[in-house]
Amino acid sequence: MSRNEIYTATRGNWKLSLIKAQNAEYVFSIVNGTIMEVFKPLSWNKCTDSERIFFDGILAPEAIREKYLDKSVKHLYSRGEANPCKYLNL
Q1: Calpha distance 74→84 (Å, rounded)
Q2: What is the distance between the alpha carbons of residues 32 and 9, in angstroms, rounded to a whole number?
Q3: CB 15 within 8 A of CB 54
Q4: Most buried of 35, 60, 65, 84 (most Cβ within 10 A)?
Q5: Which of 49, 53, 47, 56 is nearest to 18 (CA)?
Q6: In whole angstroms, what is the distance from residue 32 CA to residue 44 CA?
Q7: Please, what sign has the CA dihedral across residues 76, 52, 44, 10?
Q8: Mean pLDDT by 10-residue block, N- to C-terminus, for the chain (90 residues)?
């Protein structure tokens, strides 16, 4: 997957609280429990045809990406968990 494809897949459309999401400093793209990319959201918006939201953003700074890329977060998810989104204070 290209970086642009990862961004497109990660940026939305999520069933999340717009207010809570606006407090997120970074958004992780996670595949099979591993962080594949890190983005810095510049804005969060509501989808016009649903209650879902999406972000417009850029790649996170290199120091942040190096800190999190390829790290496992499997321990944060329970088997069968329905919502793929989480808010974390790291």
Answers
A1: 12
A2: 14
A3: no
A4: 60
A5: 53
A6: 25
A7: positive
A8: 92 91 93 93 93 95 97 87 74
pLDDT of residue 82: 66
The DSSP letter of residue 34 is E
Phi, psi of 3 (to 5 degrees): -60, -40
Residue 42 CA to its chain's centroid (Å): 13
- Sheet containing 34-46: give its strands across: 12-14, 53-59, 34-46, 27-31
CA-CA distance, 12 to 53, in Å (whole number)?
Answer: 6
Residue 27 tokens, joined: 């958004």
